[in-house]
Amino acid sequence: MTIKSSVEIITEWDIVAARQLGRDEAKALGFDTVDQARITTAISELARNIYLYARIGVVEIEKFESDTEKKIIVIATDQGPGIEDVRKVMEDGYSTSGGLGAGLPGVNRLMDSMNIQSVIGEGTTIRAEKWLR
Hints:
The chain contains four helices and five strands. The protein has helices spanning about 10-30, 35-55, 85-90, 105-110, and strands spanning about 1-10, 55-65, 70-80, 115-120, 125-130.
C-alpha cells in the first residue's frame, strides 16, 4: 500500500513544511529518531535546491508498506533549468551557489538510494528512498 502527500515549494516556509511532513510520515511508518533526522535533512536539501535553482516545484512523500518491506520515498520535481552535469553535482564540494557543495552528495549518503533525472530547460526529478530496517 502506498500513501502519498506533497508540498508545493514556492517560499522558504514551504521547505519547513516539507521537512515536517517528512518527519511526521517517517515517524508514522516506524522510523527511529535518527532515521527521521536523516530523512528530514535530505528533504530539506531537496526542497532548498528547488527553491534556489528552480524557484517552484513539488516535494512528494510516499509511505510504502507491504508484507515484506516498509520504506519512505521522497520525490522532488521542478520545471527549472535542469542540471547540466549530474556527475559534477554529485561531487563533494561542487557548488554553483557558493555553498559547501554537500547538498546532493549528502542526500545520497543519508538515503538508501537516489536517482536523478534532469533535462536542460525542462527540469529535474530526484527520487530518494529510505528503507525501514
